[in-house]
Write a structure and sequence with these properties.
By secondary structure, the protein is an alpha+beta fold. It has seven helices and four strands.
Length: 159
């Protein structure tokens, strides 16, 4: 199998388990990830500095690639904001009763696995993970090669 197929299958297995997680469990994991970002700022900044030094492209893209302590704390704050959101999974959207008495209910459920490709925005890594975890989904991320070290560091500290 290909590495991407292996990753997608692993994400699908994780999504099946994560879809059953209780809101409190999801929020505890998100909180731990948020704290990890805050406690490992230096690790992330070191990786980001390496990415920025090797970057050869427009200054506007370099600005999006560049992280600071404030930006990393903003990423952690974003995760905390996701914790504060209501858990959509299981929410009843609508429902009705058929003439024969059968009750039909439409509920929100996880999608399964979300795939995302994005460029030179390492903050998207934590944002996407937070939103997918909160909604009970697995996620496969493909950030640009210009942010590879930063994205790996973010994932490692949150793991």
């Amino acid at each position: 199998m290909t590495p991407i197929l292996d990753q997608c299958q692993a994400a699908a297995r994780a999504a099946n388990q994560w879809a059953m997680a209780l809101t409190d469990q999801k929020n505890k994991v998100l909180h731990a990830m948020s704290m990890a970002l805050r406690h490992h700022v230096d690790t992330i900044l070191l990786a980001n500095e390496q990415d920025c030094q090797l970057f050869k492209g427009p200054s506007g893209v370099l600005d999006r690639l560049t992280l600071t302590k404030d930006r990393i704390h903003g990423m952690a704050d974003g995760m905390d904001q996701v914790i504060d959101l209501s858990d959509p999974i299981g929410e009843v959207v609508s429902g009705w009763v058929r003439p024969n008495g059968l009750q039909i209910t439409q509920r929100r459920v996880p999608l399964g696995v979300v795939g995302m490709i994005y460029e030179a925005r390492p903050n998207v890594t934590s944002d996407a993970i937070a939103l997918c975890l909160k909604t009970g989904n697995g996620v496969v991320l493909r950030g640009s090669s210009s942010a590879i070290r930063t994205n790996q560091a973010i994932v490692e500290v949150m793991r």
